[in-house]
Amino acid sequence: xxxxxxxxxxxxxxxxxxxxxxxxxxxxxxxxxxxxxxxxxxxxxxxxxxxxxxxxxxxxxxxxxxxxxxxxxxxxxxxxxxxxxxxxxxxxxxxxxxxxxxxxxxxxxxxxxxxxxxxxxxxxxxxxxxxxxxxxxxxxxxxxxxxxxxxxxxxxxxxxxxxxxxxxxxxxxxxxxxxxxxxxxxxxxxxxxxxxxxxxxxxxxxxxxxxxxxxxxxxxxxxxxxxxxxxxxxxxxxxxxxxxxxxxxxxxxxxxxxxxxxxxxxxxxxxxxxxxxxxxxxxxxxxxxxxxxxxxxxxxxxxxxxxxxxxxxxxxxxxxxxxxxxxxxxxxxxxxxxxxxxxxxxxxxxxxxxxxxxxxxxxxxxxxxxxxxxxxxxxxxxxxxxxxxxxxxxxxxxxxxxxxxxxxxxxxxxxxxxxxxxxxxxxxxxxxxxxxxxxxxxxxxxxxxxxxxxxxxxxxxxxxxxxxxxxxxxxx
Length: 476
Hints:
- The chain is of the alpha/beta class.
- 38% of the residues lie in helices and 13% in strands.
- It has helices at residues 2-5, 7-16, 24-29, 36-67, 79-94, 137-145, 149-168, 177-180, 221-234, 255-266, 325-330, 344-354, 385-390, 440-448, 450-455, 457-467, 469-475; strands at residues 100-102, 183-187, 190-193, 197-200, 208-215, 239-247, 274-278, 282-284, 298-299, 303-304, 320-324, 368-371, 410-413, 418-422.
- The strands form two sheets. Strands 1, 2, 3, 4, 5, 6, 7, 9, 11, 13 and 14 form an eleven-stranded mixed beta sheet that branches.
- β13 (410-413) and β14 (418-422) form a beta hairpin.
- It starts with a helix and ends with a helix.
């Protein structure tokens, strides 16, 4: 207590020894001891005001560097990056809370009786400004949510615990995920639902679109895509959700099987009208490339920068494709047998043609994309793709959604998307399908039959070489 009582005298002595700091010495030397207490209060308030103005000046400089230019992706983690995060956290606390609402389905929302436009969208003829330099997911989130970032993260934390309970619950009646994720925020012109689902707030959306991103180890590309794709879709007044179907093992990448998983899991969240399957490294350039459900099946790409804004070949049907929910169910989803790079796109095109569907595609600059070239390593090629593609018609109704099997996925909600991590495995090979030598099940069977195969290897080898896989198929 005595130490506290001596504090004014200590400050008084310190100020007497200070050389003209803001005129304090002249002030102190002309007053008597009984005026110290009152004068010290006035001087301390003066110092507080000076410190306040200095803090505001520093804050303004941070706003200039990291606020108005938050679109920049070149920020590296460090001291100034920490200042930027602190600034936006404080901004979140100081700003008024966004409007919260509870929604279950479209019918419960009081939206105006105005349908969102599908054509003649303002600014649709313009191109996006593309920046493919490195960005963290934090930077992508704050670029989208701005001063509401912290509130969105709190909402996500609560939503994750609710969704995990649903996935861990025993079979039987349980509330739907859509009912569980009913707490939402109104952010500008959109209603935000946890997990990267957006609903127009001022008009009735024409379409509910699920974006499925097959994914593994592309953590450099994902924030860049999301930072561009979310504003792109918002400009088109769509109701949309983004799902990342992640292959959580070291097997060769199976893009088409992940598309099946993404389709099945996304339907747990709402009744989507259509599904767009989007490579993680492709960024659309033109707002007029409409991601609604019209004119499907649709190939959204008319050219990419790595091919001089042309297609690799006329029948190319990869990168970004879209189908209605009914169409996917009719052609039995996507083939599960393509492990490694290549073949599944042409197989899918064969499926839709076999059922009488015709693909559409935007023309010219409307369908141009830029491909993120940094950290771009293609998956190992599928050596069986030519054989599998040759006999795709045999598997249309027996390989796809009908035979899809996978263990319970690990589902995590993030502010901009829902991550579905799944351990997909090779499925049993149907004996009615033509076998390909590179097929993993065929290799396993050959290893099991090695003793018997060795006995007649010298006699059968020439004939098998001439007759190829059909000789193996007949023997099986």
